[in-house]
Amino acid sequence: MNAAQEISPVNSSPRRPVDSLDTPVRVSPEGPAPVVAAEPPKLTVKNLDAWYGSNHALHGVNLTVPPRSVMAAIGPSGCGKSTFLRCLNRMHELIPGARAEGTLLIDGQDLLSRDVDPVTLRRRVGMVFQRPNPFPTMSIRDNVAAGLKLNGIPGNHHEIVERTLRQSALWDEVKDRLDASALSLSGGQQQRLCIARALAVQPEVLLMDEPASALDPIATAKIEDLIHELKERYTIVIVTHNMQQAGRVSDQTAFFYMGDLIEVGPTEKIFTNPSEKRTEDYVTGKFG
Amino acid sequence: MNRLRWRKGVDRFWTVVSGVAVLAAVIPLASLLWLVISHGAPGLTAGFFTSLPTPVGEPGGGVGNAIVGTFFMVGIASLFALPVGIGAGIFLAEKGDGKLGSIVRFTAEVLSGVPSIVIGIVAYGLVVSHMKRFSALAGGVALALLMVPSLARSTEEFIRLVPSALREASLALGVPAWKTSLRVILRTAVGGIVTAVLLAVARAAGETAPLLFTALNNQYWNTDPFQPTASLTVQIYNYAISPYDDWHQKAWTAALVLLLLVGLLNLVARFLSRNRLQGAPR
Questions:
Q1: Is the full-model pTM beyond 0.90?
Q2: In angstroms, what separates the C-alpha of A66 from chain B's closest C-alpha?
Q3: Which CATH architecture best describes the domain A3-283?
Q4: B228 within 8 A of B216, measured Cβ to Cβ
Q5: What is the reported pLDDT for A2?
Q6: ipTM value for the complex
């Protein structure tokens, strides 16, 4: 098994019927397989390597994510899936000694190069974290508007607060107490508040790092429903250790193991007919 | 069974020992309070807070100018110490992992261990000897030198208590690092920092040694930073070392006033920090 084979992207058509009618477009220069896609990919990752000090945590990852689709990254603990996610908005490099190399294109524009300000990138790529982390000193309203206020983005903040709270399916639960502390919400509500906060700055891509792992099943179901709705507007990359969740929410699944991207493809294929033995062993629960 | 009785016996023995230790710790505090209150209360009149000191033998009189002087000099000290101390604390918490950080931290530790009388001498050398006069400014500088290290360290501690998840949340929204520090991290830590400020102020208000030969003393009202100024602590010292009984009385009463003042600051600080820990909604 050589490296090139391991990391070769398995491209897929997003599961929308119109796609198959369109002309195939080749978008991944290294990839051996032609890509059948209606639109060029939203996210293109080429030869992405990441280190923590001398620990080489991610080895030459190549993949593409079509616009308005969900990609799930799965794999056992320490496989590099979270590192991969944190490279996508350059949160990875905030850890002392950590660095990443490679190419990250959003709509064809490289955002990982040294001359790009990570701040610019992070406004286009929002992130939701594993544990709900609303700002404790701010009200519900101020939490949603935090990105707008702190970045000095003008506009009708009230309207944006309402719209994003509706988008994150929280509006009806909080509309009567927008000025209450964000800490007065339950864990699941706090997580949806964090999603609203990320959406308020109008990102194009939304990264979710195990967004439901700290929540109970009902709150988890709400988050998953939400992901389905958000997919209409945003490109989503979600890290999850829950394979059922990956199966429920994603269009494509990427399987990471020991810092390598083993296989990426349509979620159905990964779970029913993976090309790699290790993927099969993992999704059938033989290890991990 | 025997074993169980033995254990119960040991348990009772140590319960008694720790109870005695608690008493031993509380008795000095209680007797201090009792002594100051019982000696000080008789002289506590409204006039004591508002009038100027009187010469020996003359009835009435108070420490009004000393109370004002204490507030005045602590105010001057805060003017210098708060920006420097809190600024240094922010630096230590945000960028203090390198070599410069450990130098600053070490300096603050050494400085906070310097006896306050030495701080007084330094302020004398820095301010009094150049201005050729004792002044409230010199007293304020001395108190500021005393406040800065503890302020810096406790500001650092309170900022470090802010969960890193909040920093990540803010950075992930595309907020620049400096703005994240000021408007998310510092804002979250502000309750703790206010507590630290109050404790530092309370400590400075109770200091005598740094004021003895910087602010000296003054028999009259003074709000000129370039004139010698009275303070509660130095006034207490002067009254206490005098040979006159009515001045001794005034020393006790002034001590009670000082105790009330410092106690009040501590209480407010405790109240604020308790509120903060409960994460009380606004």
A1: no
A2: 22
A3: 3-Layer(aba) Sandwich (3.40)
A4: yes
A5: 45
A6: 0.80
